[in-house]
Write a structure and sequence with these properties.
With 248 residues, the chain is α/β, with parallel strands linked by helices. The chain contains twelve helices and seven strands. It is globular and about 50 Å long. The chain starts with a strand and ends with a helix.
Length: 248
Amino acid sequence: MRTIAFLNQKGGVGKTTVAVNVAVGLTRLGRRVVAADLDPQGHMTRSFGVEPEAATLYELMKGQRTLTETLLEVEGVRLAPASMELSGVDTEFAAQPGKERLVARAMADIPDADACILDCPPNLGLLTVNALAASDSIVIPVQAEYLALAGLGALMDTVEAARSINAGLTVLGIVLTRYNHRKRLCREVAGAIRSHFPELIFETRIRESVALAEAPGFGQSIFAYSPRSAGALDFMGLSREVDARGFA
């Protein structure tokens, strides 16, 4: 099983949208996918149409639930939901030995899974550290704007620091989100990122899309909500790239 964290400490870049739709896209390529929502806001959980329930990732991390009790199947993906209780993880587990590997232990030995997708919170707290410790690689969604460039450099420094607890961690790729090829700014930012990280940027860019904005409100992936939309086309392309890089 390959574990891939979707990470950006800057909010509003479409990180959860990318994580949800790549998870579903991989199932459409024949992969058996598990997804875990590490964000206390539960955006991935709600994007799959699931309200936080008693059996969530928090109880799994505390050892109060088994993996079988926690996972729910939605659109072919087995989901470990989030709850607001995750917001207390930094304080609750501060003094616990091995606190950076709680997620790795909780998600270990998943039966019949090819990929585990982790949706990280938009910060660099303990849950994100846990995701970095548990993952083989990360995908970085970046909005096509200038401020994203400064944040991307800081994020790369964070990944480098995380190799002290996970030496094998790699960056699988950088994906541009909310892209509009008619805007000069988008084209310039894409060029700058390609110049700095030519081997990392994905060819697929996630275009601005009304359907992508609407789908989470209906608790569906873009494939279920609007399967013929530009968003569905983009995410199928991105899923193929993730599959090719992540499982080569």
